[in-house]
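[agent] plan:
  1. take the single chain provided in the ticket
  2. run structure prediction with default settings
  3. attach structure tokens to the ticket
  4. add a short note for the reviewer (M.T.)
[agent] executing step 1
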Amino acid sequence: MHVHSTKYLSLFLVLGFMLNINAVRFIQNPADISTIEGNRVFFFCIVDDLHDSQVVSWMRDDTKLSSGNRIFKLLSTYTVTVDKVVGQYRLMIDPVSRDDGLHKYFCSVFQGSNSILESNSASLTVLEVPANYFPICSPLQTSYLLGATVTLTCKSELTSPLVDLWWIRDRHTLANGQFNIDHEKKVVHLTYSFQPELSDVGTIFTCCLSSSTVFVSRNCSTSPLQIYTNPKVSIQGTQLLTEDKEAIFICHDAVGHI
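[agent] step 2 finished; step 3 output follows
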């Protein structure tokens, strides 16, 4: 009878141990985050009833980022901190890059090498910032023939969200610009075409850029516009020519130069 009692007691202890291990649960799951590229973000998960033999790891898709508070040197921008009192595991990404928005993040409880429980996964939406050297204004030609078509081109990086571009002349916004997206080159263009007049000589055009992720004014400018005209020439000379006699012809431009 004593032998049977000992067996039952051992079985109950084993079952109790297993139930205690399986009692682990997440009481806080990581939440989706939307942030601007370059910012700092935090993901949190809180675990309850974690057994001493179990370890919580932060995961990025199928890649293990940490084990407990030990971060694997996958990326230097990732940091994990642990508060064992409340069972909180915090993942910090600083600074956030565009590539960080391509993954899902979640916590996983490991028993040895086996994952026995996973939290809900969270996504990271990264609002992109165009590179600092944008916008770029295409340089104007040295000069344009009066009546020819002048095309101004302003270029920026293709980002999500899209940037807003507009041309300004003498503090006035120019309408009827053509906005184009080049997905292959990942750029956007705003072109503005017009036929210049002599009054446009020396005019400087400015392209402005704005975005919900850009908080400092950005712009670029063209070189001063130069306009030239075809010369108007008149010829004066003898109307009646005589064989073997000298003839004089005088060439004048429109402003009277010989």
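[agent] step 4 note for reviewer: The helical segments are 2-22.
[agent] ticket updated
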